[in-house]
Each structure stands twice: as structure tokens, then as C-alpha cells.
Amino acid sequence: MRMRTVMTAALTGLALLGFASSASASTDLTWPPKDVKPVHKTKAELQKQADEFSAHQKKAFPRAFHGAKDVAPGNWGGEAEGVFDDMQYMGNSVSLTYKGQQVSTYTQVNAPGFHKSSPKEYCATTTCTGAETDHRGGVTVFAKDDRFGIVEARNFRPNGEVVWVQSWTQGTEKQLAQLAEDRAFTFTKK
Predict the structure, then answer these.
(1) Distance between CA 51 and CA 73 in Å, rounded?
(2) Is the separation of the CB atoms in 73 and 58 below 8 Å?
(3) Which of 43, 46, 62, 190 has the most neighbouring CB atoms within 10 Å?
(4) What is the pLDDT along the chain (190 residues), one digit of tens a residue?
(5) pTM of the model
(6) Cβ atoms of residues 161 and 137 within 8 Å
């Protein structure tokens, strides 16, 4: 029994070392990627996309937050809800009930080339807590802001898009990453 405990501790330690080393290496992603093509859409195209994002959130959030109920996407927009004037990003709030607790999130989808900071530059301005590859050529950076109790997953994609999801509920980083890495949230879909 003692040997099993020692082996488990050793393997866990090695896994953590591997995560730590991949986290620092993965934030060195070249940014912006080469051949980024900015996307500009009309107000009608952006509204259609916002409606599709909301419909997808109603399916994706209960998968990420297993068993979530009362998933309620807010209106999409930029500086204000429903404002789509040549926007290259849009965001919305989503509230849900998860494990009996009310959870509030914010999602932002940035068009290719709009988000200028690399993962490394972003981590120089905030408290990053780790990083992982998303198995599609992207990097997800985890961050927290203790001043406001925010945790976040920010996915940097090979096409120059950046999608992030943040929450005011601690311990939800895994769920946030699953959502940020979801390729249904994209500006490049026509």
C-alpha cells in the first residue's frame, strides 16, 4: 500500500512538472500568426452570428458545466448590447445554475487580428495560472484577477482569433476552457 502511495505521488509530481513546463513554453506562441485575414461583417451578418452563438451556448454550457440548468444567454454586442457597427469582436453574459449555485459568465469572441497581445504579453499584464494546448494548434491561457474574483480561460487560435470566457465562480477554469476552445464560437464562419 505504501509503495502504491509513493508511486502515485511520484507520477502526480511528474505530471505537474510536465504541465508547468508546457505552460511556460506554450505562452511563447508567435502572435499574431502569419497571414491573418481580418474579418469585417455587416450589422445583419453579426446579428445572425450572435443568434447562432446564443443557440449554441444553450447546448454547450450544460455540456461544459455538466448538468447545468437555467442557461440564459444575454444579448450580444460590443460596448453596448445589440450594437454591431463594423465590430470585430462581440461579447455576452450567460447565467446558469450549476450544482445548486448561481454562476455568471462573460464570453468574448474576437475576429482574427483584433486581439493584438500575444499569450506571453497578456500574461505580463495579468496573473496567469497556467496554459494548455487545445489540440487544434491553439493555446489556452488561464488567468485570475483576485481584485474582482474573476477566473478566465483565453484561447489563442492559429487563425488569429482569440476567444475568452470568464466567471466569478472559482474552480470553473476547466469548464471555461472547454467553452473558449469551442470552434463554434468563431468570426470566420460565413
Answers:
(1) 10
(2) yes
(3) 46
(4) 333 333 333 333 333 333 333 344 357 788 989 889 888 888 889 999 999 999 999 999 999 999 999 999 999 987 777 667 778 899 999 999 999 999 999 999 999 999 999 999 999 999 999 999 998 999 999 999 999 999 999 999 999 999 999 999 999 999 999 999 999 999 888 6
(5) 0.84
(6) no
